[in-house]
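User: Can you recover a sequence for this backbone? Please restate the input before giving your answer.

Assistant: Of course. Working from this structure:
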């Protein structure tokens, strides 16, 4: 992986499929100064527009179903963005939370999702997948999901409030928790999201993961857990090519 500015997953999406994507690193964040709520024309991004919004650790998705303009402002809070507009990349910002990118190349619709433990446990990923189906006619058999760099099970220790939520919501909670001791355990947030995606009916072969821990790799990623405050965030994005 080295010190690449962005990480891409050829098995997930490529220019040939009409879908462009990237998972950013801290080096890329230094290059890309992305605002919130207003689309920008960002240098080095393979699309005319890139859009990021205020994230609130919820489960709501912003749908962008028309061309963007310089005058557009999106002032609410959302943790997922869905679009069918060619030439628009939808983006999320993370610093230990999980960036999840989704596409249906046949129906030509994509989504970017910000999934911290609250959003993941509350079901932001399944809810966004359902929205893609009901609003744009995406098909389970055509949906591809990529789970990006985030806090790994190696480092992500959680306490009783998180453990209680996981145990109460998921019958399979034991498969995503490690090293239980009293009221603490390590949470495999990527595995939790993968299981949710599979429970939606998406085959495991349509799911890819970038299995890198943001807490471990200080040279590559910002980490709220490691640094104790927000020093910066990585940007991950996906979009339909303006031309195919």
């Amino acid at each position: 992986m080295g010190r690449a500015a962005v990480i891409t997953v050829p098995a997930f999406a490529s220019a040939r499929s009409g879908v462009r994507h990237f998972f950013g690193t801290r080096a890329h964040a230094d290059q890309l100064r992305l605002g919130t709520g207003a689309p920008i024309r960002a240098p080095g991004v393979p699309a005319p527009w890139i859009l990021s919004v205020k994230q609130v650790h919820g489960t709501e998705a912003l749908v962008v179903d028309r061309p963007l303009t310089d005058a557009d402002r999106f002032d609410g809070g959302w943790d997922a963005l869905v679009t069918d507009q060619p030439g628009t990349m939808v983006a999320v910002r993370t610093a230990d939370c999980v960036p999840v990118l989704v596409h249906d190349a046949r129906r030509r619709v994509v989504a970017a999702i910000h999934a911290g433990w609250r959003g993941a446990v509350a079901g932001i990923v399944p809810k966004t997948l359902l929205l893609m189906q009901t609003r744009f006619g995406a098909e389970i058999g055509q949906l591809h999901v990529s789970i990006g760099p985030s806090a790994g099970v190696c480092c992500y220790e959680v306490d009783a409030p998180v453990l209680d939520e996981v145990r109460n919501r998921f019958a399979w909670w034991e498969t995503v928790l490690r090293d239980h001791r009293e009221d603490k355990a390590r949470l495999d947030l990527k595995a939790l999201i993968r299981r949710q995606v599979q429970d939606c009916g998406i085959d495991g072969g349509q799911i890819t993961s970038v299995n890198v821990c943001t807490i471990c790799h200080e040279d590559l990623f910002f980490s709220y857990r490691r640094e104790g405050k927000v020093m910066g965030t990585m940007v991950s994005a996906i979009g339909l090519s303006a031309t195919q």
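That completes the design. The longest strand covers residues 88-94.
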